[in-house]
Amino acid sequence: HGRVHRIRSIEDARALHTVLGPGVRLAIFGGGWLGLELAAVARGQGAAVQLHSRGRILGRLPAGVSEYIAARHRAEGVDLDFGPLPDFTERRDAVEVAGHGRFDALVVAIGMDPNDKLAREAGLEIDNGIKADVGGMTSDPAIFALGDVANWAGRRIESWHNANDQAQVVARRLLGVATLPMPQPRFWSQQFDMLIQIAGLPD
Q1: What is the per-residue pLDDT for 111?
Q2: Which of 10, 102, 109, 193 has the largest count of CB atoms under 10 Å?
Q3: What count of other Cβ atoms lies within 10 Å of the Cβ of residue 162?
Q4: Percent of the chain beyond pLDDT 90?
Q5: pLDDT surpasses 80 at 112
Q6: Interhelix angle for 33-44 vs 63-75, to 10°?
Q7: How many of the other CB atoms lie within 10 Å of CB of 101?
């Protein structure tokens, strides 16, 4: 019935945008960056938000950082629920989340698996994405991989910054130009009036 959403494209975002507004009840499954950013945007538009996370939010970050961000969301009126994700039923007039009531919409933001189908069909080595060296070369020296699906030397980072940096490394390598070392991973997120910035790996 169009009440369960995911965010994979600009069209998905626009469809959700038409739903949000004052008085709307929104459930979000997922305590990662996307779920939290959606919660902040929805609260800013006057929606009531309940966010469900299988563990503490942003579980890859140090616990103190995670707790700080969780406290800020609570202060902004986001209802946080930790534990197994509840069952839900989508009906014509609402989404019923088991044990939590009825919502106007539900966003499922529980992460995604790397789409390595084409790489598998090409016979490339796979390990949490397309396995590549620090310059993007896969197990086939004629094929390079970069972006969210690429696992460079045991590290797969889902960030547009990382994809841009990898593209420059691969381009220089293909052109035979001296390659530069990859910059430290970096990431940012805007939630309410917090600008959260990360440089390097959280662990």
Answers
A1: 80
A2: 109
A3: 22
A4: 85
A5: no
A6: 20
A7: 12
Both tokens of 121, joined, read 């069909």
pLDDT per position as a tens digit, 29-56 = 999 999 999 999 999 999 999 999 999 9
CA angle (148, 151, 152) in 5-degree steps? 115
pLDDT digits (tens, 9 = 90+) for 1-34: 999 999 988 999 999 999 999 999 999 999 999 9
pTM of the model: 0.84
Output the CA torsion 131→135→141→143 (10° steps): 70
Q: Which two tokens stand for residue 95?
A: 């989404």
Task: Give the amino acid at 97.
Answer: V
Per residue, what are the HEC states of the chain? CCCEECCCCHHHHHHHHCCCCCCCEEEEECCCHHHHHHHHHHHHCCCEEEEEECCCCCCCCCHHHHHHHHHHHHHCCCEEEECCCCCEEECCCCEEECCCEEECEEEECCCCCCCCHHHHHCCCCECCCEEECCCCECCCCCCECCCCCEEECCECCCCHHHHHHHHHHHHHHHHCCCCCCCCCCEEEEEECCEEEEEECCCC
